[in-house]
Specification:
single chain; about 110 residues; SH3 type barrels; 2 helices; about 25% strand; globular; Translation_prot_SH3-like_sf; KOW domain-containing RNA-binding protein; Rib_uL2_dom2; Ribosomal_eL14_KOW; ribonucleoprotein
Amino acid sequence: MDPDSCTHIGRVVRIKKGRDAGQFALIINHLNERFVLLADGVKRKFDRPKKKNINHIELIEYVSPEVRNSIIETGRVTNNKLRHALRKFQDEYLAEEKGDDPNGER
């Protein structure tokens, strides 16, 4: 895998177009400058990822180090690890967006 294509591996994206619009997924491969492969571990598993135009996704400033390291080292990642990374992202990042305070204060 060439190092330039690894820059977005493991990054969380929000799908903007298509039947999965509004859902989150992880980039597991870069096909070229226009297309990426996405998986979420539930509907889109690692073995059957979704080919998506990069213009139809919104890059989120969150990269899962577990997913990224696993793909770079072994070329694979488990669906359980994908689900865990997305759950962790939703717990941390989306809670910040809503303004929820973990101490229960506003």
